[in-house]
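Progress narrative, Year 2. Work on Ribonuclease P protein component from Kitasatospora atroaurantiaca advanced from sequence curation to structure prediction during this period.
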Amino acid sequence: MLPSENRLRRRQDFATAVKRGRRAGRPLLVVHLNRDGETKGQTDRNSDSRPHVAEGLPSARAGFVVSKAVGPAVVRNLVKRRLRHLVRERLLRLPAGSLIVVRALPPAGTASYLDLEHDLDAALRRLLRAEPTGSVPTGAGR
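Result:
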């Protein structure tokens, strides 16, 4: 299970990660990563109600989206459990305060644990080595 301080719960946090973060798509899943973890212009009033903030450094938080297109409830829950376990092992690699949303695609319902792990690792490698938004893309200076 994912520790409480590492869970995304609020709709606003999911939206922030998806809309403001970077995206890496793979055949089995799509990973959205927002390195900032905070919306610009957020007030102190909102930060007081955030249970994941400990000792001034916010933890990386993760959320999962597994739609009915993936399969029946048993399959969706299996995919969610596998993804939670995989992300939990990789939380320390993420910058403090970052938000990550992992969205399972329909083929994830029939994929093995190792296939999910491979796609998640590939997506995270791409997102963590990527330049911050607003910079010149790689290969543009040729």
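The domain at 4-39+57-129 is CATH 3.30.230.10 (Ribosomal Protein S5; domain 2). The radius of gyration is 16 Å.
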